[in-house]
């Protein structure tokens, strides 16, 4: 694996390290929102975990098993609504465990890929415009991680919890 991909994976792992620190938070904090009317911490972590699960099951695992990817363009609003719903009925410890598990599965499978598999562009046979490229996926989700982590860190630091 080349140095750039390894650096991407290290940045991609930052989410799991952060989620581990959240495991010690009290239920009250998990159910708090960063701002009035915004998602709770539980909802944010559920949202992230469910995206990881989706990309693992529909792309990364399939690539590792030499199967056709099954990614589809999703209705983001519906996906996120279901993530909030999932978070509201799930214990924080389960959300943390799954968030770490799916992120590690993605990383481990990517590390096990050949250079050819890693840099191949995977095309959805039902929608040729839907192309999955692992390096771009990692870059996009590192951005997504930071988009959620930075406000969480600021909020928790302001509450004296980080």
From TrEMBL:
Higher taxonomy: Bacteria, Bacillati, Bacillota, Bacilli, Bacillales
The name on file for this protein is DinB family protein
Q: Where is the DinB-like domain?
A: 14-150
Q: Which domain of life is it from?
A: Bacteria
């Amino acid at each position: 694996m080349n140095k750039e991909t390894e650096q991407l994976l290290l940045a991609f792992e930052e989410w799991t390290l952060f989620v581990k620190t959240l495991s010690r938070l009290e239920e009250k904090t998990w159910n708090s929102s960063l701002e009035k009317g915004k998602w709770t911490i539980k909802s944010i972590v559920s949202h992230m975990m469910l995206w990881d699960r989706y990309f693992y099951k529909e792309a990364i695992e399939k690539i590792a098993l030499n199967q056709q990817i099954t990614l589809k363009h999703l209705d983001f609003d519906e996906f996120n609504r279901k993530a909030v719903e999932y978070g509201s009925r799930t214990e924080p410890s389960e959300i943390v465990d799954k968030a770490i598990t799916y992120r590690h599965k993605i990383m481990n499978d990517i590390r096990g890929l050949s250079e050819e598999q890693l840099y191949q562009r995977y095309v959805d046979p039902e929608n040729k415009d839907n192309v999955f490229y692992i390096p771009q996926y990692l870059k996009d989700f590192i951005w997504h991680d930071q988009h959620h982590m930075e406000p969480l860190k600021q909020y928790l630091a302001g509450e004296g919890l980080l």
